[in-house]
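Entry:
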Amino acid sequence: MSQPTSRRGGGGGETRDTDWDGVRLHVVSGKGGTGKTTVAAALALALAAGGRKVLLVEVEGRQGIAQAFDLPPLPYEERKIAVAPGGGDVYALAIDPEEAMLEYLEMFYGIRRVGKALTRIGVVDFATTIAPGLRDVLVTGKTSEAVRRRDKLGRRAYDAVVMDAPPTGRISRFLNVTQEVAGLARVGPIKHHADLVRGVLASPETAVHFVTLLEEMPVQETLDGVAELRETGLPVGGVFVNMVRPALLPERALKAAAKGRFDSAEIALGLKAAGLADATAGASAVAEALAAEVAEHALRAELEKRERAELEEAGTPRYDLPLLPDGADLAGLYELADALRAQGAA
């Protein structure tokens, strides 16, 4: 991807030329197990770098953001959780659908205290059960409000908002709020609220990104998710290929190994020449084990190459994120954020 160029802006921290200039809401989805939350957290850090202010939003109630940043469970309020390279700030919000419902009742009907009573008798759960789309409208609406919010001087409250969204299989329905509330209300506050949310989600200020691995199922779900978003008129962002392993052998050696032409006897000679195996029998045993590992690595490399070719069909920008040898700890998040910036994703 293109390398970002930094320049100093006015009042909003460092501004940069990136692949997503003008985008203020980054929705991150992905098949379970691909590292979706980790990538969303790294993207928030990358976007905040250089003195910017970014809000990272969680909508599934899993406290994944707290775990990613090694923090206690987050309350239902916006709070600062990290400092990005260059002095930017990352804030977090773990949305509680029940609290969002109470806020909605107060905002549009002025019945906050009644809402608390409703919670005790289960009416809030009842409402979101008979109208599951309403829950999605509420949590996406809370995120959209943060995107639109301005301070008393008319400045944006946040330079960008990153949403750690539901998995790929549910993302299109989750974001298609107009369709979800069609059977609930055609006029009134709910319809007006849904239209405001849709206005943000379908605008050029939004990009829906997908996280995948170079494996068959995650890649296919990514391609399906991209196609569904385009069918519903929602803006497709980039594809983040996570946990990319480095190439350990030259291309020619990989091809030979994949075809079973990697000679263990040659490996044994190399081991003996290096003084790593004295006995001929020992050298042969080690060489055979290494040859098997090389063959396995080569087959995986061939699979990953095919999956990369499949991802080309999406026609979207693509970013590679390395496999972190020590796992996705806090230091790893900053490493991934640096990788995203280097590729122009933030």
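Residues 177 and 278 are 69 Å apart (CA to CA).
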